[in-house]
UniProtKB/TrEMBL annotation:
Residues 88-409 form the Aminotransferase class I/classII large domain. It comes from Reticulomyxa filosa. The keyword Transferase applies. InterPro entries: Aminotransferase_I/II_large, PyrdxlP-dep_Trfase, PyrdxlP-dep_Trfase_major, PyrdxlP-dep_Trfase_small. This is Aminotransferase class I and II. Keywords: Aminotransferase, Transferase. GO terms for molecular function: pyridoxal phosphate binding; transaminase activity.
């Protein structure tokens, strides 16, 4: 573990960092070029790009998190019990698995929102940790379980890079990409479920990794497709790692039950960063009914953060007790911004092709005309340098160079569009 961390830091702060600063590092990147090596983790392209511009650009028109609450706003939601806990909080170490009250609140949340007839989730099925830590611990633990044999994972792509990288950090692992694709006739994102068994499944497949609602497209499957995926994993005795960070940001009434409610070998990753407007708390969780797997997660956490931030756990508890209010506000912001972006794309139809998202807080927009000729990376660089509006090029997801990700969850969205509009009117 220390060797991996040491190498990763040397990549970031050594020669690679100089290349990052020049900007050329990001261009023409491919999955092959940045596949995990025996020495550890590859540079995280998206995070390095954010590091370059996130605190310099005036408008982040590509962020996947929703508008962050202030601490005072969260505290105003507190009840008598949580405010007492906050006011009398000692800044000491916390329980390694997470505050029992918080784990109990998470269990109640999942059990209360599920229409399934499965046994309820209990607090011992839950491990509190930082969201990114959950990816590392979850995927690394599963891959190490099969480390003495060749193994493959099927991953919904494009994806957040760590969903592939953390799995491939173990020897004898490889990835097969289950691609979300744009239907040119319907202008909708689609995922072909028939390819799972017909093309992707082999004798070496051990794991399926999904992310719904999908970042960056906003796609998610129908309820029947979701159950088909669960059945596919059950029939083939596969682990299912379900990244549910954008859970509950559904379009309309169509909702999906959490994977961990449906399947004993499923692992749910979720947290407060995306759907609930509290990314700065760094509070997330892993859920699984597999007690041996949960024990392995807890063991690995002893070598990472050990325990969570005491203030963050109390603020997270307050947020979870106010989920209906928080979700209503997040969905309202996203709905307003989605409509504004659709109208913006119609106005600038020579530059952008609007592709609707079904859920989540992001959408992927196709470039046209001069912007497409420039390529997503060069166009995004031009925009951020000329008008201080940050877009996210699709090559950072290893998804060609024709799309940009748009974040729909910020309250200054229309101000960002106004600034971008002024630039495009001059540029076109």
């Amino acid at each position: 573990m220390l060797d991996i961390i040491s190498h990763h830091l040397s990549l970031i702060f050594g020669k690679t960092q100089k290349s990052l600063q020049r900007g050329g590092f990001f261009q023409n990147c491919s999955r092959h070029q940045f596949s995990t090596t025996k020495h550890g983790y590859s540079p995280f392209l998206l995070e390095r790009y954010f590091d370059k511009y996130e605190f310099k650009a005036k408008y982040l028109l590509c962020s996947s998190d929703t508008q962050a609450y202030t601490m005072n706003e969260i505290l105003k939601m507190g009840d008598k019990e949580t405010l007492s806990l906050w006011n009398n909080l000692e800044l000491s170490y916390t329980q390694a698995q997470g505050l029992p009250l918080l784990r109990n609140e998470i269990a109640k949340f999942y059990n209360g929102t599920s229409n399934t007839k499965t046994a309820p989730i209990n607090e011992n099925d839950i491990l509190i940790l930082a969201p990114e830590e959950g990816v590392l611990i979850g995927l690394n633990t599963i891959s190490r379980h099969f480390s003495n044999q060749k193994q493959e994972a099927i991953v919904v792509s494009p994806s957040y890079q760590s969903l592939q990288e953390c799995y491939q950090s173990t020897p004898n692992t490889s990835i097969k990409h289950w691609n979300v694709e744009l239907n040119g006739n319907t202008n909708q994102w689609e995922l072909n479920f028939q390819t799972l068994e017909n093309q992707l499944l082999t004798n070496h497949t051990k794991l399926v990794i999904v992310n719904f609602p999908h970042n960056p497209t906003g796609y998610y499957p129908t309820l029947s497709q979701w159950y088909d995926l669960i059945k596919f994993c059950q029939m083939n005795d596969l682990y299912l790692f379900s990244d549910e960070m954008y859970w509950n940001l559904w379009d309309g009434q169509d909702t999906l039950p959490s994977a961990s409610m449906l399947y004993d070998k499923a692992v749910t990753l979720s947290g407060l960063s995306k759907s609930y407007g509290c990314p700065g708390l760094r509070i997330g969780w892993l859920i699984t009914r597999d007690s041996q797997l949960m024990n392995a997660f807890r063991t690995m956490k002893d070598y990472t953060t050990i325990c969570n931030s005491a203030p963050s756990e109390i603020l997270a508890l307050i947020a979870l007790r106010n989920v209906p209010t928080i979700l209503s506000q997040r969905k309202s912001i996203i709905a307003t911004n989605t409509q504004a972006w659709k109208q913006f794309c119609q106005k600038h139809s020579t530059v952008f092709q609007f592709i609707p998202n079904k859920g989540g807080s992001t959408c992927l927009t196709k470039l046209k005309g001069k912007a497409k000729q420039l390529g997503a990376f060069n166009f995004a660089e031009l925009v951020v340098n000329e008008c201080q509006v940050m877009l996210l090029p699709s090559n950072l997801f290893f998804y060609g160079n024709d799309f940009v990700r748009i974040g729909l969850g910020r309250t200054n969205f229309k101000d960002a569009l106004h600034t971008l509009d002024q630039f495009l009117c001059k540029w076109k």
